[in-house]
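Agenda item 2: LLZGTKA7 complex prediction
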Amino acid sequence: MWRKVTSTSFSSLKSSLFFTRLHLQQASKHNAASASAVSRFATIAPLQEKDGRCPFITFVLGGPGSGKGTQCIKIVETFGFKHLSAGDLLRREMVSNSEYGSMILNTIKEGRIVPSEVTVKLILKEMESSDNHKFLIDGFPRSEENRIAFEKISGAEPDVVLFFDCPEDEMVKRVLSRNQGRIDDNIDTIKKRLKVFEALNLPVIDYYAKKGKVHRINAVGTVDEIFEQVKPVFKACEKAFNRS
Ligand SMILES: Nc1ncnc2c1ncn2[C@@H]1O[C@H](COP(=O)(O)OP(=O)(O)OP(=O)(O)O)[C@@H](O)[C@H]1O
Ligand SMILES: O=c1ccn([C@@H]2O[C@H](COP(=O)(O)O)[C@@H](O)[C@H]2O)c(=O)[nH]1
Ligand SMILES: [Mg+2]
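Presented output:
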């Protein structure tokens, strides 16, 4: 549970983040009590502080093959985040004898989006069990429904949203040469993923852009060139990393 801030020396950024979260958490409690839509999440608890520090949450968004995972590895090395790829969590769940296994397999094959209930549960479980309090949530939220579910259940909003903006032909080229044996790295599924990205994921980016949280990264160039655009985003947040 977030602790109430009493000091007046906090920066406006910090207090606005805190009060956004407090507001969301209060809204979450209210909604959990009153809205049946949320009742199916009842077994998931809102995010807790870790060692007196608020979780620092980054959503890493961009189309298929835009380089999210590649840049997350570099962010982890430089800034010490915990990287949670929603796609990786779903693939792990799929091969773990889970009741959701065949549903996840079929959904990924079709390039569609797994129900929020499943994905949010997996993400929050990983966040709760991590010693880290700085998270890169890669490839999530995929839709407004995902976003609303995450905010309601966790009681938190992202501090930062990275958007890797990449032309479609470059994304297709990268995915087709990825060679990691993914069942969705074929031209038919890629076309579907691109459509889903445009229809459902861009509205999430628009939503956070209106809140001033989106950092657009030009995802064309070498991995190092792209990381040069990413670095200042987190350098500017270093004070916020350890807020309580
Ligand atoms: N800047 C770059 N230039 C060329 N290739 C790149 C670049 N960044 C990543 N790649 C390569 O493109 C492929 C896709 O990258 P990555 O897996 O990071 O994308 P992603 O956004 O995580 O994709 P997905 O949403 O499908 O998981 C990988 O093979 C990666 O090595
Ligand atoms: O929040 C999520 C994330 C992913 N999926 C499904 O997994 C695949 C692959 O995701 P990557 O981020 O490219 O690894 C995606 O196309 C979706 O089918 C999801 O449903 N929800
Ligand atoms: Mg990825």
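Discussion summary: DSSP finds eleven helices and five strands in the chain.
Owner for follow-up: CH.
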